[in-house]
């Protein structure tokens, strides 16, 4: 009898830690299963075969042009897990993405939350920062979703203050709010973009490119050194700095790369220059920036809105960003996402031959990655 009691006690003593280990194993497996996408980025899963969109004479391309994919709002998420599950925002990147040149991407937003998420997914990296100041024209649902996005992602900032960006100074104050938010962090360059700008390259490509600027500022392709910014006179409307920055602001601040060391000097100068109204839905520019726009559709500031007709040519452009309209051709936005994904994860030499390699082997890399 004594032996039986001893065996029973021994079995119970062994079963308790085994049960604990089994429960821990099941919990770990469940966590890994449901959270795997957080650590390993997943390729965008589009209904469009973007590879076929390079052939403008194909039946699939012509059919798509007749029935373009438009932006369809997703459900209003109530928790961070839903956002990560849908967008697969990674918490780590491949070793080829490692680096200490932290970038800061800033854009004022007012609508189209799903478009904001799509572009953030194209560019996201845990070593960079992202800031989205919100315009006062945004509706309540957009603000709610943006604030939740900022709360969920440690490197995504969404200031609670709203901004009237219908004027140049209002736009500049929105930027400056972001710049002040994390000024104590060691970011190197800030990239300012307009609301509907789409990147054409990986964040590593943009980071490597901005490193060459060192302490300079680049606006509309023009470089300004520290001494030029320090000596700038806000009343001198004939100076190159005034002309370039005014043109930049008139086109909704797309695109500028600003060094951390010079952002205070630059924005002090800009906020001393005369204020003026910016183009918006009520006030559209009649001046067309790009006369050879294939879509013949333009934004409020006269910038070309790119669509699937332009998709074959983006392989050969030297531009960093282009403007798109998700309510006219969201499928184009999704295909640009595939391009950026491939340039981020499949180019072993970091976009050195970015214009040549994409789809050059006639091998669908995206599908290979998904499988």
UniProtKB/TrEMBL annotation:
Q: Specify whether Transmembrane is a keyword of the entry.
A: yes
Any one GO MF annotation of this record: glycosyltransferase activity
Q: What is its main location?
A: membrane
Does Transmembrane helix count among this protein's keywords? yes
User: For this UniProt entry, which residues form the secretion signal?
Assistant: none
TM ranges: 12-34
GO terms for CC? membrane
State the InterPro entries in the record.
Glyco_trans_14 (IPR003406)
Cell compartments where the protein resides? Membrane
Membrane topology per the entry is:
Single-pass type II membrane protein
UniProt keywords (A-Z) are: Glycoprotein, Glycosyltransferase, Membrane, Transferase, Transmembrane, Transmembrane helix
Question: Can you say what this protein is called?
Answer: Uncharacterized protein
* Provenance organism: Caenorhabditis brenneri (Nematode worm)
Lineage of the species this protein comes from:
Eukaryota, Metazoa, Ecdysozoa, Nematoda, Chromadorea
């Amino acid at each position: 009898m004594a032996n039986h009691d001893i065996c029973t006690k021994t079995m119970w003593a062994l079963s308790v830690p085994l049960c604990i280990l089994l429960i821990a194993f099941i919990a770990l497996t469940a966590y890994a299963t449901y959270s795997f996408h957080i650590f390993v980025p997943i390729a965008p899963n589009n209904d469009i075969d973007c590879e076929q969109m390079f052939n403008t004479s194909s039946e699939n391309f012509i059919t798509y042009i007749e029935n373009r994919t438009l932006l369809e709002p997703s459900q209003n998420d109530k928790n961070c897990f839903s956002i990560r599950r849908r967008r697969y925002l990674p918490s780590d990147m491949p070793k080829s993405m490692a680096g200490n040149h932290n970038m800061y991407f800033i854009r004022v937003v007012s609508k189209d939350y799903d478009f904001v998420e799509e572009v953030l997914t194209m560019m996201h990296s845990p070593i960079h920062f992202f800031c989205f100041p919100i315009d006062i024209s945004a509706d309540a649902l957009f603000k709610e979703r943006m604030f939740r996005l900022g709360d969920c992602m440690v490197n995504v900032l969404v200031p609670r203050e709203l901004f009237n960006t219908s004027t140049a100074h209002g736009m500049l104050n929105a930027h400056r709010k972001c710049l002040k938010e994390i000024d104590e962090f060691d970011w190197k360059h800030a990239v300012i973009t307009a609301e509907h700008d789409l990147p054409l390259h990986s964040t590593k490509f943009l980071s490597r490119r901005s490193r060459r600027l060192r302490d300079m500022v680049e606006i509309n392709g023009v470089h300004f050194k520290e001494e030029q910014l320090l000596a700038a006179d806000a009343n001198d409307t004939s100076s190159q700095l005034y002309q370039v920055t005014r043109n930049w602001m008139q086109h909704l601040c797309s695109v500028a790369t600003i060094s951390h060391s010079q952002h205070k000097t630059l924005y002090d100068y800009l906020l001393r220059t005369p204020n003026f109204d910016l183009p918006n839905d009520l006030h559209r520019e009649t001046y067309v920036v790009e006369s050879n726009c294939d879509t013949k559709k333009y934004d409020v500031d006269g910038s070309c809105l790119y669509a699937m007709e332009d998709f074959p040519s983006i392989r050969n452009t030297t531009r960093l960003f282009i403007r798109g309209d998700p309510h006219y051709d969201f499928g184009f936005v999704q295909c640009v996402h595939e391009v950026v994904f491939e340039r981020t994860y499949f180019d072993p030499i970091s976009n050195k031959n970015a214009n040549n390699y994409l789809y050059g082997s006639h091998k669908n890399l995206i599908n290979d990655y998904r499988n």
